[in-house]
């Protein structure tokens, strides 16, 4: 028997001719081997596979013809070559390594999770700790048990909420050039967020400070491929009753990108809204007419919506600002130890939060959110960049498209330093979000230790990948000059294009210029100090901060902001609510 050792194993003994790989034919991971006695059929199959899609297949010794099955019907009806295998004793070989069946994950999530997720809400319910939120749910028709705090939301409530939730809207930044269209199909990148520590090769790992936050906002502003500002690290040297003032002041003075705001109780939220509204020069009606900031709402999985998160949904939806409802489901800990179970839980919790926003203010801008991965079952530590996170992201993307809303997903890494593990985990997370079609991609750069730390060097090395992905999203130029016909005529066979006019005209800007990658040979790299990627990244972020120029701002409005913050600070600020 002649069997391919790398591609797969033949299931029983039979004389075979060389393998035909039919994967390119219809995207199916199958291989056909043909009995040596029918080479004519083998040749006809080769001709058929390379023919136009409407080409008929001529079977040797047969008096009928068979039309190709369109690729859109793959997996629904038997493909022609499978039927031929049955009729002519062809051997179907199962490959040792199949292309991942991404559509299977999405189909499972799209068809079954919504049904079971809605049953989950209707029967089990979600515990809502804020009385005002329970009141709003009751007004919307949900069943509320005040003794236990359990809220049960029917299908019709969810259906009505999804009718009023806008499928697309514009996010207003500091300048119109920074505005963002938020809808399915959009792609925006955000750096790592929410970490209590910062680290870099110069200063080491430390509790993060306002200085760290300011420097990370500068880096966010520097990179065009980062589209929004988020709470990268906690300014732990600022008291919690005053921290939100420092954070919003930093965002508005060091960046003109779309800002974020904490959901830590109405006093802090309303302070932030007032500062942002006045700094942008808006009236109350203008501020509430469009989203000028956003917040992340994390449910407490499993099935709890706590006080500050529920209050955040109410405050942001009431004032027309974007709410991103994002359950954080760690499989094996806060979610079942399976991808499908985590998707059901995450979907149910997210729809509950979206329903609260729409009952409170129909038409308020909201985003579907998902962030699921698994824990290490040996230690309980969170793991990222895993196959399970990849599958969960793909399923979440299908669910978001099913409800028809823009959605937020995330990458991340559990590595403790900026090493190969950190790069691998973040890149796998990034690609899963890209393939799932996420509209907002969080933790795309800098995030390590499962969210405990943002690394300055990792932010830079990750941005190399983010920028490459951004380049891939741009259309490929196809102008007359790009087709390069003159250059093709100019260079003789066996020649080179280094010195032709086309190359000389384009050499300075023809290709992507790496941010941190070193393409020099080993000798040159050695002469330049043998620096690895993290060492080069150290110099890069230091140079960016040293040369940073903040965007131009209205100095009168800044003075008004400083006066407001000073006044509120003297009054005691606003403590977070829990």
Description:
This protein is α/β, with parallel strands linked by helices. The protein contains 21 helices and 25 strands. The strands form seven sheets. Strands 12-23-22-19-17-15 form a six-stranded parallel sheet. A four-stranded antiparallel sheet has the order 1-6-3-2. Strand 24 (447-448) and strand 25 (453-455) form a beta hairpin. It is globular.
Strand content: 5-15%
Secondary-structure class: alpha/beta
Largest sheet, if any? 6 strands, parallel
Shape: globular
Residue stretches low in confidence (pLDDT < 50, at least 5 long) are: 1-106, 109-117
Defining key terms:
single chain; alpha/beta; 6-stranded parallel β-sheet; 4-stranded antiparallel β-sheet; 21 helices; 14% strand
What topology does this entry show?
Layout: E1 8-9, E2 20-21, H1 23-26, E3 31-33, H2 39-49, E4 56-58, E5 65-67, H3 80-87, E6 91-95, H4 102-124, E7 126-128, H5 131-139, E8 143-145, E9 150-152, H6 155-164, E10 168-171, E11 180-183, E12 188-189, E13 197-199, E14 206-207, H7 210-222, H8 243-254, H9 266-279, H10 284-289, E15 294-297, E16 304-305, H11 307-318, E17 322-325, E18 328-331, H12 339-360, E19 366-369, E20 371-375, E21 382-383, H13 387-403, E22 407-410, H14 420-436, E23 440-442, E24 447-448, E25 453-455, H15 456-473, H16 480-483, H17 485-490, H18 501-506, H19 522-527, H20 533-546, H21 555-570
Parallel strand pairs: 7-16, 12-23, 13-25, 15-17, 17-19, 18-20, 19-22, 22-23
Antiparallel strand pairs: 1-6, 2-3, 3-6, 4-5, 7-9, 8-9, 10-11, 13-14, 20-21, 24-25
Helix pairs in contact: 4-12, 4-13, 5-12, 6-12, 7-8, 8-9, 11-12, 12-13, 13-14, 14-15, 15-20
């Amino acid at each position: 028997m002649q069997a391919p050792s790398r591609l797969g194993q033949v299931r029983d003994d039979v004389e075979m001719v060389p393998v035909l790989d039919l994967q390119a034919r219809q995207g199916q991971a199958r291989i056909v081997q043909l009995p040596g006695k029918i080479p004519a059929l083998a040749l006809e199959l080769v001709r058929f596979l390379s023919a136009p899609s409407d080409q008929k297949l001529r079977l040797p010794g047969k008096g009928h013809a068979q039309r190709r099955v369109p690729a859109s019907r793959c997996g629904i009806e038997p493909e022609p070559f499978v039927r031929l295998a049955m009729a002519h004793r062809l051997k179907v070989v199962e490959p040792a390594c199949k292309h991942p069946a991404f559509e299977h994950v999405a189909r499972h999530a799209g068809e079954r999770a919504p049904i079971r997720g809605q049953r989950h809400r209707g029967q089990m319910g979600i515990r809502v700790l804020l009385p005002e939120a329970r009141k709003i749910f009751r007004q919307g028709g949900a069943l509320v048990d005040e003794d236990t705090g359990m809220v049960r939301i029917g299908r019709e409530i969810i259906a009505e909420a999804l009718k009023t939730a806008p499928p697309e809207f514009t996010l207003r930044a500091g300048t119109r050039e920074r505005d963002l269209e938020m809808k399915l199909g959009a792609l925006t990148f955000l750096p790592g967020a929410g970490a209590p520590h910062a680290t870099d090769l110069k200063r080491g790992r430390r509790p993060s400070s306002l200085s760290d936050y300011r420097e990370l906002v500068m880096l966010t502003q520097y990179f065009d491929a980062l589209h929004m500002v988020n709470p990268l690290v906690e300014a732990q040297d600022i008291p919690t009753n005053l921290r939100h003032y420092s954070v919003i002041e930093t965002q508005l003075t060091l960046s003109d990108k779309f800002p974020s705001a904490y959901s830590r109780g109405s006093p802090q939220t309303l302070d932030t809204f007032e500062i942002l509204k006045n700094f942008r020069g808006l009236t109350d009606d203008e501020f509430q007419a469009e989203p000028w900031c956003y917040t992340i709402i994390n449910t407490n999985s499993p099935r709890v919506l706590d006080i500050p998160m529920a209050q955040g949904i109410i405050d942001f939806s009431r004032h027309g600002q974007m709410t991103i409802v994002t359950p954080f489901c760690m499989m094996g800990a806060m979610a079942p130890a399976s991808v499908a179970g985590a998707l059901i839980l995450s979907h149910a919790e997210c729809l509950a939060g979206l329903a609260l926003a729409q009952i409170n203010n129909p038409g308020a801008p909201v985003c579907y959110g998902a962030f699921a991965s698994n824990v290490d079952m040996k230690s309980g530590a969170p793991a990222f960049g895993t196959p399970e996170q990849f599958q969960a992201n793909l399923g979440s993307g299908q669910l978001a498209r099913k409800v028809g809303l823009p959605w937020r997903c995330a990458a991340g890494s559990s590595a403790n330093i900026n090493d190969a593990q950190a790069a691998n985990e973040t890149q796998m997370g990034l690609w899963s979000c890209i393939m799932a079609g996420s509209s907002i991609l969080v933790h795309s750069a800098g995030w390590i230790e499962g969210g405990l730390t943002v690394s300055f060097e990792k932010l830079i090395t990750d941005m190399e990948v983010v920028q490459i992905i951004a380049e891939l999203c741009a259309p490929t130029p196809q102008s007359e000059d790009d087709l390069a016909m003159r250059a093709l005529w100019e260079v003789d066979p066996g020649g080179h294009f280094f010195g032709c006019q086309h190359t000389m005209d384009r050499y300075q800007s023809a290709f992507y210029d790496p941010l941190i990658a070193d393409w020099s040979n080993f000798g040159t790299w050695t002469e330049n100090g043998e620096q690895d990627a993290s060492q080069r990244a150290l110099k890069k972020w230091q140079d960016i901060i040293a040369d940073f120029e903040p965007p131009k701002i209205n100095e009168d409005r800044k003075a008004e902001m400083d006066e407001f913050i000073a006044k509120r600070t003297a009054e005691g600020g606003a403590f977070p609510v829990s």
